[in-house]
Design a protein that fits this description.
Number of strands: 0
Distance between the termini: 28 Å
Number of helices: 8
Strand content: under 5%
Largest sheet: none
Length: about 200
């Protein structure tokens, strides 16, 4: 299973796989109640679940391919969210559009951080947008995959914490945020270039 992965990667993998499993249970429970993710979050989550299973095997090439597929889809999810808030995916109220305008997005940001003074809500919206753009480009570059995966997980953890405490866990389920969070941690264990670092066996005497 994960014996060939260096200890730091193994710890990240175990943490990520636990969150992915918990996310699956969470999604199933809300799916039974009628709350299901949209097609894009569902596709990204499915790719990350496949990556979680593949990364547990010793098939380094399969894990590398699954890692790139997951990284591109996760980056597309971040990038799509940014495009949505600038109206590039359609106007507010259209099918498949969450915000459709910067004004709608800042209003939603205000819901997520109600404790912030009104003048700082715009700054929070800008900060979240910059973070998502950086993570999107970083994931696509393949550079320092471990740090990119962790950065994506941190952004998703911040979103999930804000959503659970304000708009409610159903919104988290609708966006499959827990699955994406766990999958981002697993992605951090799959090198973009090259294989896993395997510890050498002790020399024979």
């Amino acid at each position: 299973m994960t014996e060939g992965i260096e200890p730091a990667r193994r710890r990240l993998y175990l943490a990520g796989s636990v969150v992915v499993f918990a996310g699956l249970v969470f999604q199933i429970s809300y799916g039974v109640a009628g709350t299901t993710p949209g097609s894009i979050p569902l596709l990204v989550a499915a790719a990350l679940v496949v990556l979680t299973a593949t990364a547990a095997m010793r098939a380094r090439r399969a894990a590398a391919v699954a890692g790139w597929v997951a990284a591109v889809l996760l980056a597309a999810d971040f990038g799509g969210a940014v495009a949505d808030r600038f109206g590039l995916l359609g106007a507010p109220g259209e099918s498949g559009v969450t915000w459709g305008s910067w004004t709608a997005f800042t209003a939603y940001t205000g819901q997520l951080v109600p404790w912030l003074p009104a003048p700082l809500v715009d700054a929070a919206a800008v900060g979240a947008t910059v973070a998502e753009i950086v993570v999107c480009v970083w994931l696509l570059s393949g550079w320092r995959r471990r740090e990119a995966g962790v950065a994506a997980a941190v952004v998703l953890a911040a979103f999930s914490a804000a959503m659970v405490t304000t708009v409610g866990p159903a919104a988290v389920a609708k966006n499959a945020v827990f699955l994406l969070l766990g999958g981002a941690l697993v992605l951090a264990t799959v090198p973009a270039y090259g294989g896993f670092r395997v510890r050498s066996a002790a020399p024979a005497r």
